[in-house]
Every structure is written in structure tokens, then in C-alpha cells.
Amino acid sequence: QKEVEQNSGPLSVPEGAIASLNCTYSDRGSQSFFWYRQYSGKSPELIMFIYSNGDKEDGRFTAQLNKASQYVSLLIRDSQPSDSATYLCAVITTGNQFYFGTGTSLTVIP
Amino acid sequence: NAGVTQTPKFRILKIGQSMTLQCAQDMNHNYMYWYRQDPGMGLKLIYYSVGAGITDKGEVPNGYNVSRSTTEDFPLRLELAAPSQTSVYFCASKAGDPRTYNEQFFGPGTRLTVL
To answer: Which of A26, A29, A45, A101 could join A89 in a cystine, given CB atoms 3.0 to 4.6 angstroms apart?
Structure first.
């Protein structure tokens, strides 16, 4: 079983719509959860992090964490073509190591 | 600040050759990491370091070695390169304890091809 699993997509949404990205993790003791955005040929950049159950909002981005169900999600409101990228979910496990998912490719259609 | 720098940007190796990927950061971060990213995949941790003189294995350490003699530098050594090591290699650094929020800053990556 992989530590972190994501639907690889591709996910396509029209401009202005809400994009929903999901991630599940296997280590129930994991404490820290991150969403990275990676443009093609570039390095990942952090866009959201969350530690507590519930929602965390930052601009057009909302991260949601449900530790009981072991999933993390990222909502992007008012999606823009510039949001087209691969989104990587990352988790720090009880072993204090980072694990990344394989990423979900998002395309926002103008 | 230059942030995290990596050299070289691109490299082609022949099977069996060796090389060192360089990584340096000027943010005085204690934590440094080496990842590899295969096409269409996420990042896999190769090695990490929590400070000068301290290194530990990640998820995929076989075929690689690291050293951390200074806070700034964290080179990754490939011995006896194999085609399976064809990948993009990212170095990253982070200020504090990974269990609390501190952003990982990534370098631009090194694209390595082994033929």
C-alpha cells in the first residue's frame, strides 16, 4: 500500500469553476499535510499546508483534512488557466519522513 | 539570497560512470533533502540530513551516497550509474522540525540521463 495516493487525472475544469483534488494517506499517525503545485519542467512550490481537522482557506485555495477518514483535499475556486499544473499531496509520517503522491494533473480550459 | 542552487542543470552519463550532484543553500537551514522524480510520478526521498554531519536514508537510497560537512552543502554521489537512475533530481531545504510548519524550498533540479 502506498503511503500517499492521488488520482492522477487528468482533471479538466472550465475557467471560473471549482477544481477539487483529493489525496488519501495510509499512516494514521501522520500529523502534517501539504499541497504543492508543480508546473511542467519546474520545481514544486508550496501552496497550502494543514495540521488540524477541518478547513483552511487561503485566497482561492481551501485545504480540507479529515484524519478519521485519512484524506486531504484541495479546492481551487474561480479556477484560472494559470492554475493548470500538477498538484502534489505530501505527508509527514510518524517516521518523520516526507512522502509525496504521484500528483494530479489539472487543466483549466479558458 | 540565492535560495537553493543545484549544479549541473543537465547531465548525460554512460552506464557505470560516477558523478556528484551539487546542492547548496544560503538560508542557514538545518534540514536538507534529496528527491528524485521520474516522469509522471511524484517525488521520492533518497536521503536527508538534519544538520551538518548527520544524514539518513529515505525511501530509495540504493545506488546513492551523501555527505553533509557544512550547513550549506549537501552533495549527492552516484556510483556506477545505471539507466534506472535516469530522473530529475531535486534538492530541498527547510528551516526547522519537519513536524511543524516550515516550508521546503526546492532547487531548480538536475535532469540526469544514463545511457
So the answer is: A101
Is B106's Cβ below 8 Å from some Cβ in A?
Answer: yes
- Cα-based distances in Å from A88 to A3, B15, B20, B50, B111: 13, 31, 27, 23, 19
All three cell numbers of A82, joined, read 494559470
Q: Is B23 exposed, middle or buried (0-12, 13-18, 19+ CB in 10 A)?
A: buried
**With contact defined as beta carbons under 8 Å apart, do A77 and A20 qualify?**
no
Give strand ranges (E) for B15-100: 19-25, 31-37, 43-51, 54-57, 64-66, 76-78, 87-94
Residues A6-51: tens digit of each pLDDT: 987 899 999 999 999 999 999 988 888 999 999 999 999 999 999 8
Give whole-number Cα distances, A60 to A31, A47, A87, in Å: 24, 11, 15
